[in-house]
């Protein structure tokens, strides 16, 4: 435990916490979007379980992230998955019905949080792993301390979404942006993207258009059906 008394350990810990504060914004948005339609009590459970499990997942992912990023098509698949998640969160599609709807919806929210965090964290964990420099205690401690940061951010975002519904659309747009970025960052496309820097922003913008455009179209269609049935 002598490493606890070294300045390098505490400096590294502060760096990891700071990195997580910077990189956890989009994760907090995903958690808030996934949990916003749940009853208050289930919101708290979904945020706590989702945030805690996501951090544990990041710790495991850190060990293999560098190798995973070398695989072709992995980030293409992950980016497409993010676009689908953004679309579902914007349209408010939920699993479950009847008496089991509450539990089913909460589990669906936690599942969405984990999948989205897995995809969005591939690049992020490399920065954290580089800062930890192989010190697993530093890595685990730094990520564990980030849990309350993500929980607080998610809880704040849920309250803001209730007060300002436009934030839901902005959150889905953020997921679409990250999804587009993830696709063109794939190992297979990275060389071409580096040679054409504009493609990075074009793909991210296209992700926003796909998620928000299709989501709004489906919302309008569902609203039209509801009016006809009424």
Written account of the structure:
The protein is mainly α. It has helices at residues 7-23, 25-35, 40-68, 74-91, 101-132, 136-163, 166-184, 190-195, 198-229.
Labels describing this entry:
230 residues, mainly alpha, membrane, Integral_membrane_YjbE, transmembrane helix
Radius of gyration, whole Å:
19 Å
Q: Low-confidence segments, ≥5 residues, pLDDT <50?
A: 94-101
Number of DSSP strand runs = 0
Q: Provide mean pLDDT, rounded.
A: 78
Q: Which percent band covers the strand fraction?
A: under 5%
Task: Summarize it.
The protein is mostly helical and 230 residues long.
Task: Give the topology.
Layout: H1 7-23, H2 25-35, H3 40-68, H4 74-91, H5 101-132, H6 136-163, H7 166-184, H8 190-195, H9 198-229
Helix pairs in contact: 1-5, 1-6, 2-5, 2-6, 2-7, 3-5, 3-6, 4-5, 4-7, 4-9, 7-9
Family: Belongs to the TerC family.
Transmembrane segments: 12-34, 46-66, 72-90, 110-130, 136-153, 160-178, 198-218
Pfam family, one: TerC
């Amino acid at each position: 435990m002598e490493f606890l008394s070294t300045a390098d350990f505490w400096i590294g810990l502060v760096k990891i916490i700071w990195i997580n504060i910077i990189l956890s914004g989009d994760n907090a948005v995903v958690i808030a979007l996934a949990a916003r339609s749940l009853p208050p009590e289930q919101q708290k459970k979904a945020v706590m379980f989702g945030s805690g499990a996501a951090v544990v997942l990041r710790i495991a992912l850190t060990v293999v992230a560098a190798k995973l990023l070398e695989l072709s098509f992995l980030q293409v698949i992950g980016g497409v998955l993010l676009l689908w998640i953004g679309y579902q969160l914007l349209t408010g599609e939920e699993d479950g019905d009847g008496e089991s709807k509450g539990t089913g919806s909460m589990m669906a929210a936690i599942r969405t949080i984990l999948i989205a965090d897995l995809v969005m964290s591939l690049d992020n964990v490399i920065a954290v792993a580089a800062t930890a420099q192989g010190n697993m205690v530093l890595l685990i401690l730094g990520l564990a301390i980030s849990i309350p940061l993500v929980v607080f951010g998610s809880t704040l975002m849920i309250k803001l979404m209730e007060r300002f519904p436009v934030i839901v659309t902005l959150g889905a747009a953020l997921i679409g942006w990250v999804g587009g970025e993830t696709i063109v960052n794939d190992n297979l496309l990275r060389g071409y993207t580096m040679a054409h820097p504009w493609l990075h922003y074009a793909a991210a913008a296209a992700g926003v258009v796909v998620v928000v455009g299709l989501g709004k179209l489906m919302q309008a269609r569902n609203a039209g059906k509801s009016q006809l049935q009424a």
